[in-house]
Amino acid sequence: MSDLESRITSWYEQREEMSPENHEARRDVELVIAKLDDGQIRVAELNARGEVVVHEWVRQAILLLFRLRGLTHYEVGPFEYLDKLELKHDYARRGVRVVPGASARRGSFLSPGVILMPSYVNVGAWVGRDSMVDTWATVGSCAQIGANVHLAGGVGIGGVLEPANAVPVVIEDDAFIGSRCMIVDGARVGRGSVVGAGCVLNPSIPVIDADSGVEVSRGYVPDYCVAVSASRRRSYPGGEFFLPCVLIIRRLTEGERHNKVALNEILRDHGVAT
Ligand SMILES: CC(C)(COP(=O)(O)OP(=O)(O)OC[C@H]1O[C@@H](n2cnc3c(N)ncnc32)[C@H](O)[C@@H]1OP(=O)(O)O)[C@@H](O)C(=O)NCCC(=O)NCCS
Q: Model's pTM, two decimal places?
């Protein structure tokens, strides 16, 4: 455990007493946010066995930030804001293209080659190299998005600041998440998978293999699957109903890219040196 980690853990134990006057705690927390912002640390990551490891102390620092900072007033042209966290800066240095209307909060990390269409990225989120966050997509706090991912228009990636020990959403490298999907509460999409438009995925939603009829998981689409939203019959005392599920309709071979979701390179050429 690093010194910074143990200090944050101890400040978090005293969180009820924390206020913006606590300068020592604030200095530590601001250091964590600066490291998150530059990608030196992250809230969660995959280990060598492919398991999600959450660095709880980093999330605790983010929660403390809201106690340790007062509100600041900003005006941008006709727009006015009142918030505790500022926005990210310095996009040219970071090699990130940001279309007007997009906002990323400081303490999120955007890798070189990322394109933000008018979208939102919250604190603690990580977005990997060359990923596209399309129009009206939101990347919730602490969500972990891999490299070469496309979050299509209106996708909602849930955030997790609370409860303690909650696992963030993980979208692995090369995945495609179709328009208006809602992926929340620690759900996970594996490498190279394609999730069809309009899917809801959370840890209660069964993921079913269409070939075998077997439920392969809840809330986890494995690597290289093409999955769409479907429904399953459920009987209750009040009658029969159809609840949502996610159906794997096809398997891709490792490294294969689904022909319908290839991105037009011309849209991805972002003109920012990386
Ligand atoms: C998931 C997707 C890639 C599937 O494409 P595909 O592998 O070529 O599959 P098909 O189009 O042949 O569809 C297979 C079956 O799934 C159904 N299906 C396709 N997409 C679906 C979806 N999003 N939700 C539910 N069912 C879907 C089809 O009706 C078809 O049923 P059928 O076998 O009875 O005809 C595609 O339909 C999709 O959702 N693309 C994302 C579009 C998008 O979000 N674009 C982003 C713009 S910013």
A: 0.93
